[in-house]
Amino acid sequence: QVQLAESGGGSVQAGGSLTLSCAASRYTCIGWFRQAPGKEREGVATIYSFVGSTPDAAYADSVRGRFTISRDNAKNTVFLRMGNLKPEDTAIYYCAAGSLGGPSCNTALRVRGLFSFWGQGTQVTVSS
User: Fold this and answer.
1) Are 7 and 122 in contact (CB under 8 A)?
2) 54 within 8 A of 42, measured Cβ to Cβ
3) How far apart are the C-alpha atoms of 99 and 123, rounded to whole Å?
């Protein structure tokens, strides 16, 4: 059974930074999603990588330029570096994984059903 474990959540003031980590099996496509109280779960960023290829990342418009997704395949870990955090970034952040090709991984940012495996989530709270 695939186990995904998120870590790194916490509380921070607006303008601050946090880095989330996801310990994941080596799947080609890893994504970060978030869900705020009373709202739908939304895609934040995805990253596709395959042996011999350059990692390809996709971002939601709301976080582009502030968040960076990256992966360390040697450690089977994906990171989400979040900068210039805003109160509206407050949510539970989830890591997801799937064996998807590059184009499908980009699509999965908007179609979370393409991911097969999900973590339990980590809380991020940004205060003003």
Assistant:
1) yes
2) no
3) 26
